[in-house]
C-alpha cells in the first residue's frame, strides 16, 4: 500500500514536470495535448480536459481504476478513451503522451505520404526511438472512432500520427514516451526542412541492424 502511494505521488509529480517541460519548450500550446501514466496496479492517471500542460496540478489529475472507471480528480481529457486504447494495444506501456507539436501537425496535413509510415528513416536515433509512424485517418478529437483507429495501428507501432491533428506516443515509462515524442517532432521538422532536396535516408539494411540492437 505504502509503495503504491509513493509510486502514485511520484508519477503525479512526474506528469506535471514533463508537461511543464514540453510546454515551456513549445512542444504544445494553450490547453492542447494530454498525458497519462499507468501505476503498477493498473490504475491510470490522466491530465484533465482543458488543462494547460504548463501548469498542471499533480493533486487534480484525473484517476481511473484498472477497469477504466473515473474515480478521482478533475474531469478527464476528452481523449481518455484514446489513452486507454493505447494501453490496450501496447500491454507493456507505462505512459502515453499526445501533443500538438507544430512540425508533426504540419506533416499530418500533407497529402501523398505513405499512411503506413509517414516519415523516412532519416537518422539512427529516430529509428531507435520512434521506428515506424503510421497515420490514423481524421476523426474529431475525443471521437471513439479516433481511439479505435489508433488502437489498430498501435498494435504494430508505439507512435501514431492523427491526421490533421498531431502525434500520440506510448512508452514503457513517461520519460521514454517523452523522448520518443521529442525525437518524432524534431524528425518531422527535419523532414519539412529537407522537402525538395535529394535525400539519402538510411537503407533497409541499416534500419534492420538498428532494430536488432
Ligand atoms: O485536440 C484536442 O482537442 C485534444 O486531443 C487535445 O489535445 C486536448 O483535449 P483535452 O485533453 O480534453 O483538453
Ligand atoms: Zn489533440
UniProtKB/TrEMBL annotation:
Pfam families: Aldolase_II. Residues 13-192 form the Class II aldolase/adducin N-terminal domain. It catalyses: 3-dehydro-4-O-phospho-L-erythronate + H(+) = dihydroxyacetone phosphate + CO2; 3-dehydro-4-O-phospho-D-erythronate + H(+) = dihydroxyacetone phosphate + CO2. InterPro entries: Aldolase_class_II_sugar_metab, Aldolase_II/adducin_N, Aldolase_II/adducin_N_sf, OtnC. Its EC number is 4.1.1.104. It is an enzyme of class 4 (lyase). The keyword Transport does not apply. The keyword NAD does not apply. Its cofactor is Zn(2+). SMART domains: Aldolase_II. Keywords: Carbohydrate metabolism, Lyase, Metal-binding, Zinc. Belongs to the aldolase class II family. AraD/FucA subfamily. Catalyzes the decarboxylation of 3-oxo-tetronate 4-phosphate to dihydroxyacetone phosphate (DHAP) and CO(2). PANTHER family: 3-OXO-TETRONATE 4-PHOSPHATE DECARBOXYLASE-RELATED (PTHR22789:SF0), FUCULOSE PHOSPHATE ALDOLASE (PTHR22789). NCBIfam families: OxoTetrPhDc, PRK08130.1. This is 3-oxo-tetronate 4-phosphate decarboxylase. It comes from Rhizobium rhizophilum.
Amino acid at each position: 500500500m505504502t509503495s503504491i502511494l509513493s509510486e502514485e505521488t511520484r508519477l503525479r509529480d512526474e506528469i506535471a514536470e514533463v508537461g511543464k517541460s514540453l510546454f515551456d519548450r513549445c512542444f504544445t500550446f494553450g490547453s492542447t495535448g494530454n498525458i497519462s501514466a499507468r501505476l503498477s496496479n493498473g490504475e491510470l492517471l490522466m491530465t484533465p480536459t482543458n488543462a494547460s500542460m504548463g501548469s498542471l496540478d499533480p493533486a487534480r489529475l484525473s484517476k481511473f481504476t484498472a477497469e477504466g472507471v473515473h474515480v478521482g480528480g478533475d474531469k478527464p481529457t476528452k481523449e481518455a478513451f484514446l489513452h486507454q486504447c493505447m494501453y490496450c494495444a501496447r500491454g507493456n506501456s507505462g505512459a502515453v503522451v499526445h501533443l500538438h507539436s507544430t512540425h508533426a501537425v504540419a506533416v499530418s496535413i500533407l497529402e501523398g505520404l505513405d499512411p503506413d509510415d509517414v516519415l523516412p528513416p532519416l537518422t539512427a536515433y529516430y529509428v531507435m526511438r520512434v521506428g515506424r509512424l503510421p497515420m490514423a485517418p481524421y476523426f474529431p478529437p475525443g471521437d471513439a472512432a479516433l481511439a479505435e483507429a489508433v488502437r489498430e495501428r498501435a498494435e504494430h507501432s508505439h507512435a501514431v500520427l492523427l491526421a490533421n491533428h498531431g502525434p500520440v506516443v506510448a512508452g514503457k515509462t513517461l520519460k521514454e514516451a517523452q523522448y520518443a515524442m521529442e525525437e518524432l517532432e524534431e524528425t518531422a521538422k527535419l523532414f519539412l526542412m529537407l522537402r525538395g532536396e535529394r535525400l539519402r535516408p538510411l537503407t533497409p539494411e541499416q534500419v534492420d541492424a538498428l532494430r536488432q540492437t
